[in-house]
From TrEMBL:
The active site is at D98, D276. InterPro entries: Aspartic_peptidase_A1, Pepsin-like_dom, PEPTIDASE_A1, Peptidase_aspartic_dom_sf. Residues 1-25 form the signal peptide. It comes from the Eukaryota. It comes from Suillus plorans. This is Acid protease. Residues 80-394 form the Peptidase A1 domain.
Length: 404
């Protein structure tokens, strides 16, 4: 079997703190079952964060409207970044990791350095974002180096001439389905993304991406992306898979069908939605959100646009249950609250309790009725399997942890 490849991440909690770590090789010779790791940096973005709920909602509404990769760059709360090399010899760029788009582009805040492997395709690229901003420029092919074991030849890559991004970010590394590249590059139907090229060039044995996050407020706030397989050491049960939904527009993304209950009370019948690392919160269709708000007793906080509850209400909070395929996944009361140590980052009161479930802004039936964002994914391991058109989940050591 071709060995899987991993990207692991460490979280720096202060706002915009950036931890840059070089790629580390295993001290032991690599075998067919070993992995190679490249450390990511994870930052909490306070620049441009006027309101995290509004930012997440703008991102998803743009996706509902059919945007090819609708990501609100300046308003992402949790920023997972990697330093990747482009060219030979490589120049390194800090790029944001996101499963909600599939393009790779660089050139923001740091110019593209051409080498012998750089080839101008003569085409242009353009991507519109959820906040009305955009990025555009020339499309090249070049060698992309994630680490010494993850080197991609002739990868299509955008070189930005116009863009606006978070300070310290030079571009994007998209890990979403190939359909998301349609219409982004001139004279081109679809652009082969990184995962597809890793597979086609024999670097990984299957187009499978495993994603692990630990809670931002935990003592070991780390994460890991595994290419070509999932990391069995990160899960406490089996991976359970469901097919990609057939309902549009969720089917364009990593979309699944699920139903949700608050305690014993159903709040969303089986509908289509997406799993998205680029979305911080858990978003629900308006009618489902209103049922959740009523059940929890939460009131909308003006400063954060998050639901706010009292200590007494928190003590009475029930679990949320996500039924995906044949299994039900429990999101505990503690997993439903914003990390209290980060309250002030979202302009909240340090001593208050806020919920991480928010309104998507549309009633159910839109074809994208929920988003299982970061605060769902930090409690469950997720697997994105292009080869078999499916998404999988498993419990981890953090599923029932009390960290917030």
């Amino acid at each position: 079997m071709v060995p899987s490849r991993s990207l692991s991440s460490l979280l720096a909690l202060p706002a915009l703190a950036f931890l840059s770590l070089s790629a580390s090789a295993s001290p032991h010779p690599r075998t067919a079952s070993s992995t190679a790791t490249l450390k990511l940096a994870v930052r909490i973005n306070s620049y441009g964060i006027q309101n995290i709920a509004v930012a997440d909602r703008a991102r998803i509404q743009a996706q509902q409207a059919g945007g090819s990769s609708s990501i609100n760059v300046t308003n992402n709360m949790m920023l997972y970044t990697a330093d990747i090399g482009v060219g030979s010899p490589p120049t390194y760029y800090t790029v944001l990791i996101d499963t909600g788009n599939a393009n790779i582009w660089i050139g923001a805040k740091k110019p593209y350095e051409k080498t012998a492997t750089s080839q101008d395709t003569g085409n242009t690229f353009s991507i519109a974002y959820g906040d009305g901003s955009s990025v555009s420029g020339e499309e090249y092919t070049d060698t992309v180096t994630l680490n010494s074991d993850l080197v991609i030849s002739n990868q299509s890559i955008g070189v930005a001439s116009q863009t606006s991004v978070v300070e310290g970010i030079n571009g994007f590394l998209g890990l979403g389905p190939v359909d998301l590249t349609r219409g982004t590059v001139s004279n081109t139907g679809e652009v082969a993304p990184v995962m597809e090229n890793l597979y086609m060039q024999g670097t990984i044995g299957s187009e499978v991406l495993g994603v692990f996050f630990a809670p931002a407020s935990s003592d070991d706030s780390s994460g890991e992306l595994t290419f070509g397989d999932y990391d069995a050491s990160k899960i406490t049960g089996d991976i359970s898979y469901v097919p990609i939904t057939s309902t549009s527009p969720a089917s364009t993304f990593w979309g699944i069908d699920q139903s949700i209950s608050y305690g014993d009370t159903p709040i969303l019948n089986q509908k289509a939605g997406i799993v998205d690392t680029g979305c911080t919160l858990i978003l629900l269709a308006t009618d489902a959100f209103e049922k959740y708000q009523s059940a929890t007793g939460g009131t909308l906080d003006e400063a954060t646009s998050l639901l706010k509850i009292s200590s007494d209400q928190y003590e009475k909070l029930s679990s949320l249950y996500f039924t995906i395929g044949e299994l039900t996944y429990e999101l505990t009361p503690n997993a439903q609250i914003w990390p209290r140590s980060l309250n002030t980052v979202v302009h909240g009161d340090a001593n208050s309790i806020y919920l991480v479930v928010a309104d998507i802004g549309n009633p159910s039936g839109s074809g994208l009725d929920f988003v299982n964002g970061y605060y769902f994914l930090e409690r469950f391991y997720s697997v994105y399997d292009t080869t078999n058109s499916q998404v999988g989940f498993a419990t981890t050591e953090w599923t029932y942890a009390i960290t917030n």
